[in-house]
Amino acid sequence: MPGKTLREEVKEIQAQLAKLQRRLETLEGREEAPAARIRTYIDDFDDLIGGGIPRGHVCLLSGPSGAMKTSIALNLLRRNSENGIHVLYISLEETKESLQETMRSLGLSEDSDFIVDVGRLRTEHGDIEETGDWIGVLKDFITKRKRYRKVDLLVIDSLTGLYSLAELDDPHRELFHFFAFLRNLGITSLFIFDQGEEGRYPNSEDSIADGLFHVGFHCLREGSVGLKLRCAKLRHTEHSMDYHELRFENGRFSVRPLSSSSL
Ligand SMILES: Nc1ncnc2c1ncn2[C@@H]1O[C@H](COP(=O)(O)OP(=O)(O)OP(=O)(O)O)[C@@H](O)[C@H]1O
Ligand SMILES: [Mg+2]
pTM for the whole thing? Predict the structure, then answer.
């Protein structure tokens, strides 16, 4: 067999280069259409909600104090960011240092560039104490951040904290416009909502959100308490509304059906 001509070798190399280029573009997400849903990174939960949160939805994650709402949200953002999604966590209650400590405790990598706390917002918006326009500050910060870094996925921790800071005249109306602003930017958003009693939304926040997730406590057996999670609403999705047992083990969140031994 005669050897390949120089022309054939060049053609072969060019074909291989084109193939590598396509692979690189796919890896960089330039060619690949972004997934229509954002994964929660709670094992087996995404299957119950049609694969994740539809992109562009504004959702609430509500539940009582200590029910791992912040932990779930940090895990969701960190894991998504590892998969090329641009994320932003705005903390209106806890400091960045406290959230870094939570990330360490969850075994998440310590890169916390995506976390912005209320102290930083106060520093960057010197007039906020006089105006009290916290929604304006958030809109401004998100718009600027999106301009130079992109924001696909946002968590605001928490809506309750925003209410304490902002003293809104008409919370339902102002929230309605804030949610519309986020949808217009195409940012998938999760607001954490401190809720002592399930289903209690003082300003009918549930009716303007696209999705509602509720985390709570349940009694495993006398004296032993576990966590439970359910999706109460998710627009454009056929989903389970049942509570599932929520676990955090070996660095991963997961759900499974509530065991029959649960009280
Ligand atoms: N590594 C861990 N494994 C299991 N549970 C943990 C771990 N780290 C923290 N926790 C539990 O998570 C709880 C706090 O989690 P987190 O701050 O996410 O809750 P939260 O619902 O956001 O609370 P808050 O209402 O105070 O904001 C702790 O009280 C502890 O019980
Ligand atoms: Mg919290």
Answer: 0.87
* Ligand 1 mutation target, pool 60, 62, 65, 68, most atoms within 8 A of CB: 68
Backbone dihedral angles phi then psi of residue 33, each to the nearest 5 degrees: -65, 140
Residue to probe by mutation, ligand 1, list 71, 156, 249, most atoms within 8 Å of CB: 71
Cβ atoms of 211 and 234 closer than 8 Å: yes
In a domain, 20, yes or no: no
| Residue 198 belongs to a domain | yes
CATH number of the domain within which 203 lies: 3.40.50.300
Phi and psi torsions of 154, nearest 5°:
-130, 140
Using one digit for the tens of pLDDT, what is the confidence trace for 51-100? 999 999 999 999 999 999 999 999 999 999 999 999 999 999 999 999 99
Give the residue numbers spanning the domain of 174: 33-257
